[in-house]
């Protein structure tokens, strides 16, 4: 049984018979969500309900979502290739930008091939069941994103979960599976940067274990691409491990600033996915203009400007950590402030909003029960003054919490 909070819902909801009853239960539990549309475009500052807020909620880590060159490339893509692909890739929806982008992704990830999808979620749902099946095994980190858990479940493979970043448990699981079967396919799944904690996986050690036990490795670089590595291609790039990883997955919707997902792998695996990944085979191709614009974004990420933006992001992180007193042991722009209850997280988020800051409250099932938190995400596009202001408010929050607990 998978014990991942991101994919587990309270079984008490199953006893309720109508949508209204479920909604009431969610509200009572502090877990009810609703859409709160912005009145502006995405950016380091946004407008909601007529108020300007500094945006510490988005995943636009490099500030590329409103980059003039990327916006221009998107417009050019529409003018050259139209607004939509109008068919699935296997019918007549494979247009020039799709091919060029996939070639660029394969080169950047040092693989023979790559395949793009409409989203990161669609990537996981299509790829994992195409790699493993009923006679196989999936071994994944307990804190893996819901899309990876759902993809693993769809595969019908036997699931095994290891505690977050627990190498000893991972080794024991791999040893046990191999003792049972020398031929079963084993797929180990982890993330380079975990989306709700911002910490890194021990990638060198995980690569060594998968090689020792003849297992495949799927690494989700969703929150690492653009942020880590000399060329901004993620943790595998930073550690020089790209050629040793079977499947490199990621999104084009976070630091890349656009939309979509991808998988980079050997040519044989990509050719198999073209035939077997259902979210690819049976979906209309992503808009060609987006693919055209992503190419510009990738070029920016690997350029001198991309390195400068990563340096700015690291500077923001250092300033914030120093000024806020928030202790984190990683160097990514995702900063969790765990408050425990959903109510506490919601109150803190609302208080920050009154001070002009958009910082989301993250609750179950996105994170495990009892670990509701504020999730702060920094961007290279933030003004230094905004970083200092947030740091001061976070220091006030910590002081208030210490007084409330009598510390």
Detailed description of the structure:
It is a single chain. With 407 residues, the protein is of the alpha/beta class. Helices cover 44% and strands 15% of the residues. The chain has two domains: 36-61 and 333-405, Alpha-Beta Complex (Aspartate Aminotransferase, domain 1); 68-302, 3-Layer(aba) Sandwich (Aspartate Aminotransferase, domain 2). It has 15 helices and 13 strands. A seven-stranded mixed β-sheet has the order 3-9-8-7-6-4-5, sandwiched between helices. A three-stranded mixed β-sheet has the order 1-2-11. It has a three-stranded antiparallel β-sheet with strand order 10-13-12. Strand 6, helix 8 (203-212) and strand 7 (216-220) form a beta-alpha-beta unit. Helix 5 (120-131) runs parallel beside helix 6 (146-155), helix 7 runs parallel beside helix 8 and helix 12 crosses helix 13.
Nutshell version of this structure?
It contains 15 helices and 13 strands. It is of the alpha/beta class and 407 residues long.
For the structure shown, list the relevant keywords.
2 domains; 407 residues; seven-stranded mixed beta sheet
């Amino acid at each position: 049984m998978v014990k991942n909070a991101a994919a587990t819902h309270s079984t008490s909801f199953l006893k309720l018979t109508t949508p209204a009853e479920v909604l009431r239960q969610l509200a009572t539990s502090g877990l009810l969500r609703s859409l709160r549309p912005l009145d502006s475009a995405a950016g380091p500052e946004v407008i909601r309900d007529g108020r300007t807020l500094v945006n510490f909620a988005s995943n636009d880590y490099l500030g590329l979502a409103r980059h003039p060159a990327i916006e221009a490339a998107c417009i050019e893509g529409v003018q050259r290739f139209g607004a939509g692909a109008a068919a699935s890739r296997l019918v007549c929806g494979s247009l020039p930008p799709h091919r060029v982008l996939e070639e660029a992704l394969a080169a950047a990830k040092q693989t023979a091939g790559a395949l793009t999808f409409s989203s990161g979620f669609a990537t996981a749902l299509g790829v994992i069941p195409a790699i493993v099946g009923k006679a196989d095994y999936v071994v994944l980190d307990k804190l893996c994103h819901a899309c990876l858990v759902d993809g693993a479940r769809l595969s019908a493979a036997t699931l095994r979960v290891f505690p977050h970043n627990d190498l000893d448990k991972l080794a024991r699981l791999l040893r046990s599976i191999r003792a049972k079967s020398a031929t079963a396919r084993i797929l180990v799944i982890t993330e380079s940067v975990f989306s709700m904690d911002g910490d890194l996986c021990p990638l060198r050690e995980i690569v060594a274990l998968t090689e020792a036990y003849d297992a495949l490795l799927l690494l989700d670089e969703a929150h690492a691409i653009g942020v880590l590595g000399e060329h901004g291609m993620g943790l595998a790039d930073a550690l020089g491990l790209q050629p040793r990883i079977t499947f490199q997955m990621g999104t084009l919707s976070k630091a890349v600033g656009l939309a979509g997902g991808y998988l980079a792998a050997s040519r044989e695996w990509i050719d198999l996915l073209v035939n077997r990944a259902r979210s690819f085979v049976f979906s209309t191709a992503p808009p060609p203009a987006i693919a055209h614009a992503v190419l510009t974004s990738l070029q920016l990420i690997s350029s001198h400007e991309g390195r400068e933006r990563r340096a700015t992001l690291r500077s923001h992180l250092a300033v914030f950590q120093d000024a806020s007193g928030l202790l984190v042991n990683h160097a990514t722009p995702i900063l969790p402030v765990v408050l425990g209850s959903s109510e506490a997280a919601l109150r803190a988020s609302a208080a920050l909003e009154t001070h002009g800051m958009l910082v989301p409250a993250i609750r179950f099932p996105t994170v495990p029960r009892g670990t509701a938190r504020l999730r702060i995400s920094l961007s290279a596009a933030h003004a230094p003054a905004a970083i200092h202001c947030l740091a001061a408010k976070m220091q006030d929050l910590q002081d208030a919490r210490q007084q409330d607990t009598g510390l």
